[in-house]
Design brief:
By secondary structure, the protein is mostly helical. It has twelve helices and four strands, in the order E-E-H-E-E-H-H-H-H-H-H-H-H-H-H-H. The strands form two sheets. The chain has a two-stranded antiparallel sheet with strand order 1-2. Strands 3-4 form a two-stranded antiparallel sheet. Strand 1 and strand 2 form a beta hairpin. It is found in: Cell membrane.
Length: about 325
């Protein structure tokens, strides 16, 4: 950009003027983006980081109820928890639940997702059918299982109708089967939704990969596990993390609705123990001490799953 200026002798001269710097506009854009992120950051700090810190604080307190006086307990709550046989029963039940429900759910869901991704006849209808358990509320799912597993329910009626009445049992009230029923509910509730997620991811895998494997003589089973699985290995890890967290922290609602942790402690899980001690026994210090241990178990589990499913290339 140039401008005309007058010299001392009265003649006109041209002088170059540098263009305005665009830096202020870029700075305003960056500042505007930061301002837009502030509400989400405040929400995260108040409702995510705040409760997490509160768990560690309450775990160090002796707090026998919401309206009761609070005193500092230090590590006393941890000693009480570790000396409590109910806690170790909950640890065992949670470990069995995770060891059975998560692998079965992921393997079966991956196989179902692979089948749907091959676009068989009626694959759109199959997607909707698989998604139905995810659309049903938790109390409704619990009522379905209660109707099937109660002493006069559908399962015992079916066994009697085929001459196997001797195998009938009070499935939800038996110490040997109560936890297995809860695991079956976890698998049934999560397998369809997980299969739909896998089908969506497998649908983005190029068809040429499967066709090349089949031209080389690989069947569907080998193509599924040796070709498609390695391609979406990282996605399998993400879905496994989600189901691990859901099973670890979300099992309390199924226990509460169906077994109340019984009979005895045969179906008590760590997440239900947190609820039971906080809202039934009114021992908030004990409850949040278990919550801290549950948080640490979840963190270790996530890191382990991430390492197992990490891509090797």
């Amino acid at each position: 950009m140039t401008t005309l200026t007058t010299t001392p002798d009265g003649s006109a001269a041209r002088r170059s003027v540098p263009p305005p710097s665009p830096a202020p506009a870029a700075g305003r854009r960056r500042q505007g983006g930061t301002v837009l992120a502030v509400p989400a950051l405040v929400w995260y700090l108040v409702f995510m980081v705040g409760p997490l810190l509160a768990i560690f604080v309450i775990a160090a307190l002796h707090w026998p109820g919401m309206l009761q006086p609070v005193s500092f307990a230090g590590l006393d709550n941890a000693r009480v928890v570790l000396d409590d046989p109910v806690f170790w029963d909950a640890v065992r039940n949670t470990a069995v639940q995770l060891a059975v429900a998560v692998p079965v759910m992921i393997v079966c869901a991956f196989m179902l997702g692979y089948y749907v991704a091959q676009r068989p006849p009626g694959h759109r209808v199959i997607r909707y059918l698989l998604f139905i358990p995810g659309l049903i509320s938790t109390p409704a799912k619990a009522m379905v299982f209660y109707a099937a597993l109660s002493p006069d329910g559908l399962l015992n009626g079916g066994l009697e109708s085929v001459g196997l009445g001797s195998l009938a049992d009070a499935w939800l009230a038996s110490p040997s089967t109560a936890l297995a029923c809860l695991i079956a509910l976890d698998i049934w509730a999560g397998i369809g939704f997980t299969a739909v997620l896998f089908a969506a991811r497998l649908g983005s895998v190029p068809d040429e990969l499967g066709e090349a494997a089949q031209l080389d003589g690989a069947g569907h089973w080998r193509t599924m596990w040796s070709v498609h699985f390695p391609v979406i290995r990282d996605y399998v890890g993400v879905v496994t993390m989600l189901q691990f967290l859901w099973t670890l922290f979300g099992s309390a609602q199924h226990v509460l609705l169906l077994t109340q942790g019984g009979p005895g402690t045969s179906s008590t899980t760590l997440s239900f123990l947190v609820y039971q001690k906080a809202f039934i026994a009114a021992d908030l210090g004990y409850s949040q001490t278990v919550g801290v241990l549950l948080f640490l178990a979840g963190l270790v589990g996530l890191l382990t799953i991430r390492r197992v499913f990490r891509q090797n290339y």
